[in-house]
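[STRUCTURE TOKENS]
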Amino acid sequence: MDQISAEIEPTVKSSDARFQSKDRVMAVPRKILIIQLRRIGDVLLSTPVIRALKTRFPKSCIAFLVERESADILTLNPYLDEVIVLERERYRNPFYSLRKIWQIRRRGFDLVIDFLGNPRTAYITFLSGAGRRMGYDVHWRRFYYNLLIKDDGRPKYSATHKLEALKSLGIDASDLRPDFLISEEARLFSQSLFQEAGVDPGKLIISLSPTSRRHFRRWHLERFARLADWLISRFQATVVLVWGPGERGVVEKVGGLMEQKPLISPETEDLFRLGAILQKCDLHIGNDNGTKHVAVAMGKPTLTIYGPQDPVNWTYPEPARHKFLKKKADCPDCDRMKHRCEELSCLDEITLEDVQGVFLQLLRDLEKGKEREVVEKIERLAVDQR
């Protein structure tokens, strides 16, 4: 994926020892630490911040604190100088946590930005020794920071919200594209996979992700199977069922419910290989999960099926290329109760016909937008069906 700098107008030259922030003059940070633990999507949607910071402060050393499962996203990021990895399974060991905090403190960061804001990351930020500690203005944790990120309450794309937090540092960035660079080994892996499977590169290749760790984000598997059959019969497409650790049984069940034959991706030992598989596809359809965000980072149009989550927060704001389906349900206190919800009418009410209709609209919009490869494949299909 091409790397393009964020559109930033620095208030002073990057070589200056001090810079003008939103309401004060500050020293240019020598060492910056970004903290974003948790899942793939959370980390990917933080990468525009890395790019914006490096563009604004090119001489600063930028590090990122992340959990192991998402570390691959950052390994080849050209705007990062260091990736610090936390092993989630060792959190209960107090000596491990104290040792990590000590290692962070010894690095001498003078600016720490906490984009998670849970008790663990607030504690790490406070004990980092940094003179400037940025975090969310939430509950008692606000007292651990001295630069507060305030939420204006308006729904917006997660990456937008993170970039807006940088305005207090005098940074006004607008480039929301996530960065995820793929290794050459992963490219060769996906190339070999598609060749051995006999995938016709001249026809549509669509990745399908029916998985999610959260039950309230899972559309019905039998509907995914019927959708995949329709994509194959209607468009002569190759449907690639993608999955992550512990999810093979899900895609095998979808394959077993199908009348047509999909390509079930092999186990991918890292996120590079998942990204390389998605990069070989033309479009992506699936649940609201990390795979969708990887597809966006690979530059692929997406169609996402949502349960209780707010699509505005997690859908890339380019409606012609990134579409979603969500049905409103009359559920009291949905955000708090979704983890225990057993009915999930918001997902039940999304029919196969609903998804088919949005997919056809996506194709029409891609044709209008001159999405060259997709348009050529659709035109070729139309000629073959005459």
Notes: DSSP finds 16 helices and 14 strands in the chain. Residues 1-16 have pLDDT under 50 and may be disordered.
